[in-house]
């Protein structure tokens, strides 16, 4: 903790220094402005320093504008009106972007020039549209000889709402995978689809026209109602197209499929007929979740889509025995079902008791285990008020009778109002006695029909399709059942039948479309026998590959294990009608599988549309002498339609039969985790019914996108940024990269943070852009120097002996190998972290290590080799990043093309379609394979060691306040791992130059350098675990010896104060234990770095000289000068505690300073020309003040 106090003190000290500097700067600025005014008053012209500052303010410290540059005409094939906007020289436009004031999220500055990533994306979008690039890419791939198809099925969204982040996430995943497959040589058809039928559309019409139930629809007319639905189906289709295209997703909107197309509906009929002919369809009565807002039953998986915590009444009702002196106690959270009660149910093996409530003076029967304690009928303190009279097994209560609660169905006394037994009764809540209303509960219905209380022809369900009581309950006829709870409870209390009443908070299903509570009603419906398919479904699921696979084997597997028969019919209007024609007695059923078949059976030839208004009146003559057959009134559950899309989108089997059968199942699908009970499920059920196959091979399931606070994104709460705003201000590439890096690609929830999107601009796109800018500048410098434009052949080998060239080229090959392996496994989320490492390697290591070399410090020939290596990397990067960041990859490709030398042989092999060559877009190219001649695992390994060593040295310099510009005497690296020291020996010049050290010592003997391990507990993790023992354990940790910690480092476990510490519970570090305080130590795994931290006068002097150079260079940059602008620099000492030291350094290192600045550096003279002054500044250097003035040469 002492270290933390010291750190805090240092932070406070630095904050104080900054504040003082700000105050001094403000004072200096005011003084300077006064002097400038005097100068202007005396000369009539602005002071040079003011002009320099004005330019700096305007250009934000950038460099001077570039002079015109022309490219070789043959190499500038990318230039012209058909390419993303460029200047006359083939370079990208770099004018100021229209910033939005969002922390620079749209416009990113690199020196003087401003670059707008979203703005350039808009230019790329125009380029693609002008070229019709997506369709061209499809033509290029389709025309390849023997090309293989990569089959993708796209789940159809509804266009009645706008796209949200969930759609953008799934769309990005789909686009990355399909673009990658295309760029690996496959032909990848991609069609957009629309879910047009069903509740989302009908609900909007019901709201618009005030429709409350079926009667309102019939008054309006089915044809008029369906026409109204058709009119709004594509309400937001243009917004969808615009947003999806702006995201960079390539998919065919023009050749789409819609579930309302007659040809699509015909294939749905065909699919259903195949299932019907296999005897997998039946009509039955079941208790089903029912939406009263939409007047239709829902499937079980739809009922689970919107579970909400609600407060409901929880009542315990007394049912009086007919032949006895007690009442059965039953508990329910749905009092509205009590008028439909026909039985009670107990568990045959549980122990029940008859007891007397002494205060009430009444006898009751309930489960013994539910009498007392938490949630029981009585508290422990009330035990003395209860006397147990008798004990029974549940089976002993069978067929005991009780009096009906209500008179409505009292005429059923001969079969109803008795105790039944079944093992579904539980002992963890209620009274152990369940009230059975067979019209409203699945188990109730099953138990009561088995006991003969009711039959499917003789049901009790006095609730209509709007959720109101029918005339069977006259006192409450027309009342919404949920509103009747209070009325029923009041009546039970008045009649002495209410034993207890409370409120309970529990999860209750709601209609996923209207948000209204679902009711459970016993209804007739058409079902698919899913339970008969369970084993096949589980087998077929196992044959598929999921990312992540635990969803396949966990959530989805469990859902399939417990899957029930699927209710596929809906009592609605706007949908694909069930193709079932039935006789009046229900005995003769004909299933129609096509329009042609219906025409033949009905004798009509005018049937072209299959919606209800066109087929409801069509009849089929009976073949059994039963008159005419009429179509049943129901339509398909829209999930059946979307589950049929693999077949219906191709109008199978009526068209494209051979093509479909050769390319089924799909290679890839992707949707959100909510589709485990939706689209994934229906696809699997229908595919299993038809072909005993899963319709997909590979599947990515994504998690949900939540607001940053972890709550659901809400328009009302405004707790998330508008997706179009993010696309407009931050760009699609950054958003795409953010989404596919997130936990959501592993089926976990993502808390959307816009700053995460903007962070990737800084971490990936700006460094990538700056690497190109530096390449571009040095290519232009080389052209100016040699008189020839710089070109390289990216199909040939860059023959270089430079270790950094060999390393970055080899690293790219390993990265390509990694990308191909991970994409083949559909692990998108692993690619971006490796990409970030690559960007760091490229910009913070390769470019920095070679900056002088690229500028020609080692000759133009060597600079050209370095430029080739860098250009090879940038062009390869544009290609392998194209599926992930399609916009900036295209921008980079177009700007790198002018530097590529294409051989006549390669030129001749380029194909042209519709007047466009296949090298005109990066997306017409292939993601390259690794080039064997660049592969070198040993050099990649060596540079990893180098980087770790240099990073360790930097940490030690920072910790000991030793700026890199001040040389250090020695760095020692200790390691016993094979190859580490040899690798460093081969790269030692980079270690010494990067860390500015005089001597590098390599050793395998740790003991020779007097270092020892020390440890401190990880207070963050151990504090909550050890609680009050943490202080005792911390003290024990401080007493651990080097040998004990070495053993911990090896075994990763140690016992302290009765606690087992493992892994990262202890934070280990090294310290130098010598008496001379010579070294500071830093370890990184198997590498120990020691830095000589003693101060040597000659090294301090050199560091001061370096600091002078650094400060003058900053003045030069602030004045808007380029390194080649001719200047003269003068200096004048102005006092300070260490003036003598600075004066000595200026004398002894004058030639070094002048050489580093590439200009004369001399003492100030009174004869200097004031009009030639560009900038002047008083520099504080090592306790002395030095006035430096820059003149025009």
From TrEMBL:
<keyword id="KW-0030">Aminoacyl-tRNA synthetase</keyword>
<feature type="domain" description="Aminoacyl-tRNA synthetase class Ia">
    <location>
        <begin position="124"/>
        <end position="750"/>
    </location>
</feature>
<dbReference type="Pfam" id="PF19302">
    <property type="entry name" value="DUF5915"/>
</dbReference>
<keyword id="KW-0648">Protein biosynthesis</keyword>
<dbReference type="GO" id="GO:0004822">
    <property type="term" value="F:isoleucine-tRNA ligase activity"/>
</dbReference>
<protein>
    <recommendedName>
        <fullName>isoleucine--tRNA ligase</fullName>
        <ecNumber>6.1.1.5</ecNumber>
    </recommendedName>
</protein>
<dbReference type="InterPro" id="IPR013155">
    <property type="entry name" value="M/V/L/I-tRNA-synth_anticd-bd"/>
</dbReference>
<dbReference type="GO" id="GO:0000049">
    <property type="term" value="F:tRNA binding"/>
</dbReference>
<feature type="compositionally biased region" description="Basic residues">
    <location>
        <begin position="91"/>
        <end position="102"/>
    </location>
</feature>
<dbReference type="GO" id="GO:0005737">
    <property type="term" value="C:cytoplasm"/>
</dbReference>
<comment type="similarity">
    <text>Belongs to the class-I aminoacyl-tRNA synthetase family.</text>
</comment>
<keyword id="KW-0963">Cytoplasm</keyword>
<dbReference type="Pfam" id="PF08264">
    <property type="entry name" value="Anticodon_1"/>
</dbReference>
<feature type="region of interest" description="Disordered">
    <location>
        <begin position="39"/>
        <end position="115"/>
    </location>
</feature>
<dbReference type="InterPro" id="IPR002301">
    <property type="entry name" value="Ile-tRNA-ligase"/>
</dbReference>
<dbReference type="Pfam" id="PF00133">
    <property type="entry name" value="tRNA-synt_1"/>
</dbReference>
<keyword id="KW-0067">ATP-binding</keyword>
<dbReference type="InterPro" id="IPR009080">
    <property type="entry name" value="tRNAsynth_Ia_anticodon-bd"/>
</dbReference>
<feature type="compositionally biased region" description="Basic and acidic residues">
    <location>
        <begin position="51"/>
        <end position="62"/>
    </location>
</feature>
<dbReference type="InterPro" id="IPR002300">
    <property type="entry name" value="aa-tRNA-synth_Ia"/>
</dbReference>
<dbReference type="InterPro" id="IPR014729">
    <property type="entry name" value="Rossmann-like_a/b/a_fold"/>
</dbReference>
<keyword id="KW-0436">Ligase</keyword>
<dbReference type="InterPro" id="IPR023586">
    <property type="entry name" value="Ile-tRNA-ligase_type2"/>
</dbReference>
<dbReference type="InterPro" id="IPR009008">
    <property type="entry name" value="Val/Leu/Ile-tRNA-synth_edit"/>
</dbReference>
<feature type="domain" description="Methionyl/Valyl/Leucyl/Isoleucyl-tRNA synthetase anticodon-binding">
    <location>
        <begin position="805"/>
        <end position="967"/>
    </location>
</feature>
<dbReference type="GO" id="GO:0005524">
    <property type="term" value="F:ATP binding"/>
</dbReference>
<dbReference type="InterPro" id="IPR001412">
    <property type="entry name" value="aa-tRNA-synth_I_CS"/>
</dbReference>
<dbReference type="GO" id="GO:0002161">
    <property type="term" value="F:aminoacyl-tRNA deacylase activity"/>
</dbReference>
<keyword id="KW-0547">Nucleotide-binding</keyword>
<dbReference type="InterPro" id="IPR033709">
    <property type="entry name" value="Anticodon_Ile_ABEc"/>
</dbReference>
<dbReference type="GO" id="GO:0006428">
    <property type="term" value="P:isoleucyl-tRNA aminoacylation"/>
</dbReference>
């Amino acid at each position: 903790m002492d270290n933390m106090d010291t750190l805090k003190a240092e932070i406070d000290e630095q904050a104080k220094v900054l504040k003082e500097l700000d105050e001094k700067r403000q004072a200096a600025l005011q003084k300077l402005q006064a002097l400038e005014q005097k100068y202007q008053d005396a000369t009539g012209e602005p002071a040079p320093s003011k002009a320099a500052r004005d330019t700096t303010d305007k250009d934000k410290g950038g460099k001077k504008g570039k002079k015109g540059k022309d490219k070789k005409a043959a190499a500038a094939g990318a230039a012209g009106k058909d390419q993303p906007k460029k200047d006359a020289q083939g370079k990208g436009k770099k004018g100021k972007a229209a910033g939005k004031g969002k922390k620079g999220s749209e416009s990113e500055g690199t020196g003087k020039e401003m670059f707008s990533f979203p703005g350039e994306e808009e230019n790329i979008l125009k380029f693609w549209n002008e070229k019709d690039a997506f369709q061209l890419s499809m033509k290029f791939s389709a025309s390849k000889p023997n090309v293989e198809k990569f089959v993708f099925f796209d789940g159809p969204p509804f266009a009645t709402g706008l796209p949200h982040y969930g759609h953008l996430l799934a769309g990005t995943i789909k686009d990355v995978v399909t673009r990658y497959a295309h760029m690996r040589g496959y032909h990848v058809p991609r069609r957009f689809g629309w879910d047009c039928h069903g509740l989302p559309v009908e609900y909007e019409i019901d709201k618009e026209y005030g429709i409350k139930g079926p009667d309102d629809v019939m008054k309006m007319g089915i044809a008029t109602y369906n026409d109204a639905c058709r009119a709004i189906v594509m309400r937001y289709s243009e917004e969808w197209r615009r947003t999806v295209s702006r995201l960079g997703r390539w998919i065919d909107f023009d050749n789409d499929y819609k579930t309302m197309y007659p040809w699509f509906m015909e294939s749905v009929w065909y699919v259903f007929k195949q299932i019907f002919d296999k005897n997998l369809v039946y009509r039955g009565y079941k208790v089903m979740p029912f939406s009263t807002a939409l007047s239709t039953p829902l499937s079980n998986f739809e009922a689970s889509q919107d579970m909400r915590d609600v407060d409901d009444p929880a009542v315990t009702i007394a049912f009086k025995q007919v032949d006895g002196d007690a009442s059965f106690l039953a508990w329910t959270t749905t009092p509205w079902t009590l008028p439909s009660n026909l039985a009670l149910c107990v568990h045959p093996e549980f122990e029940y008791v008859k007891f007397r409530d002494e205060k009430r003076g009444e006898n009751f029967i309930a489960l013994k285990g539910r009498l007392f304690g938490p949630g029981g009928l009585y508290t422990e303190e009330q035990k003395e008020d209860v006397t147990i009279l008798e004990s029974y097994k549940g089976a002993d209560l069978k067929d005991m009778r009780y009096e009906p609660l209500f008179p409505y169905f009292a005429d059923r006394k001969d079969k109803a109002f008795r105790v039944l037994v079944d093992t579904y009764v539980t002992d963890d809540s209620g009274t152990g006695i369940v009230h059975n209303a067979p019209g409203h509960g699945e188990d109730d219905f099953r138990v009561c029909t088995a006991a003969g209380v009711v039959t499917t022809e003789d049901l009790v369900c006095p609730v209509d399709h709007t959720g109101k009581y029918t005339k069977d309950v006259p006192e409450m006829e027309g009342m919404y059942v949920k509103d009747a709870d209070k009325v029923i409870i009041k009546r039970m209390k008045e009649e002495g039948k209410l034993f207890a009443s409370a409120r309970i908070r529990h999860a209750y299903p709601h209609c996923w479309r209207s948000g209204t509570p679902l009711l459970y009603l016993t209804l007739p419906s058409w079902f698919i026998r899913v339970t008969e398919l369970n084993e096949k479904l589980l087998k077929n699921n196992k044959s598929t590959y999921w990312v992540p696979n635990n969803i396949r084997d966990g959530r989805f597997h469990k859902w399939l294990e417990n899957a029930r028969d699927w209710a596929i019919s809906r009592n609605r209007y706007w949908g694909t009608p069930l193709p079932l024609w039935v006789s009046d007695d229900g005995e003769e059923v004909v299933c129609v599988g096509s329009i042609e078949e219906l025409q033949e059976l009905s004798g009509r030839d005018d049937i072209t549309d299959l919606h209800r208004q066109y087929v409801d009146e069509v009849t089929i003559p009976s073949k059994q002498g039963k008159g005419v057959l009429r179509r049943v009134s129901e339509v398909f559950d829209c999930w059946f339609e979307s589950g049929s899309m693999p077949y219906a989108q191709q109008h199978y089997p009526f068209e494209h039969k051979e093509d479909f059968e050769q390319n089924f199942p799909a290679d890839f699908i992707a949707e959100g985790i909510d589709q485990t009970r939706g689209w994934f499920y229906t696809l699997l059920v229908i595919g299993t019914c038809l072909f005993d196959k899963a319709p997909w091979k590979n599947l990515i399931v994504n998690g949900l996108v939540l607001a940053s606070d972890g709550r659901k994104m809400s328009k009302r709460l405004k707790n998330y940024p508008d997706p179009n705003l993010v696309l407009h201000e931050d760009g699609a590439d950054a958003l795409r990269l953010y989404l596919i890096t997130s936990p959501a690609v592993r089926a976990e929830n993502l808390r959307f943070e816009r700053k995460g999107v903007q962070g990737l601009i800084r971490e990936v796109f700006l460094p990538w852009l700056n690497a190109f800018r530096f390449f571009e500048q040095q290519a232009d410098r080389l052209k100016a120097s040699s008189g020839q434009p710089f070109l390289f052949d990216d199909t040939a080998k860059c023959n270089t002996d430079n270790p950094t060239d060999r390393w970055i080229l080899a690293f790219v090959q390993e990265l390509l190998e990694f990308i191909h392996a991970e994409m083949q496994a559909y692990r998108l989320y692993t690619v971006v972290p490796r990409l970030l490492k690559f960007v760091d390697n490229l910009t913070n290591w390769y470019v920095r290590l070679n900056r002088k070399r690229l500028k020609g410090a080692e000759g133009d020939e060597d600079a050209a080799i370095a430029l080739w290596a860098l250009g090879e990397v940038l062009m390869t990067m544009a290609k392998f990043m194209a599926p992930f960041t399609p916009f900036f990859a295209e921008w980079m490709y177009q700007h790198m093309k002018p530097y590529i030398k294409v051989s006549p042989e390669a030129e001749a092999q380029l194909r042209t379609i519709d007047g466009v060559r296949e090298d005109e877009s990066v997306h017409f190219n292939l993601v390259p394979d690794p080039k064997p001649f660049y592969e070198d695992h040993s050099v990649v390994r060596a540079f990893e060691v180098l980087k770790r060593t240099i990073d360790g040295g930097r940490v030690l310099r920072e910790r000991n306040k030793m700026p890199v510009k001040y040389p250090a005497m020695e760095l020692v690296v200790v390691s016993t791992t094979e190859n580490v020291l040899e690798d460093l020996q081969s790269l030692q010049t980079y270690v010494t130059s990067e860390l500015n050290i005089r001597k590098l010592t390599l050793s395998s003997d740790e003991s020779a350098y007097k270092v020892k391990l020390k440890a401190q507990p990880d207070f963050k993790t151990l504090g909550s675990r050890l609680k009050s023992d943490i202080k005792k354990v911390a003290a024990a940790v401080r007493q651990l010896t080097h040998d004990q910690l070495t053993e911990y480092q090896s075994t990763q476990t140690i016992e302290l104060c009765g606690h087992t510490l493992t892994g990262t519970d202890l934070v280990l570090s090294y310290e130098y234990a010598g008496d001379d305080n010579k070294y500071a130590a830093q370890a990184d795994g198997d590498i120990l770095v020691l830095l000589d931290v003693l101060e040597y006068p000659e090294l301090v002097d050199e560091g001061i000289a370096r600091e002078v150079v650094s400060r003058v260079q900053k003045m030069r940059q602030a004045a808007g000068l380029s390194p080649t602008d001719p200047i003269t620099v003068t200096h004048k000492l102005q006092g300070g505690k260490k003036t003598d030291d600075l004066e000595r350094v200026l004398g002894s290192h004058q030639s070094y300073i002048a050489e580093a600045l590439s200009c004369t550096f001399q003492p100030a003279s009174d004869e200097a020309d004031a009009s030639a002054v560009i900038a002047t500044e008083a520099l504080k250097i090592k306790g002395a003040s030095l006035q430096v003035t820059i003149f025009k040469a």
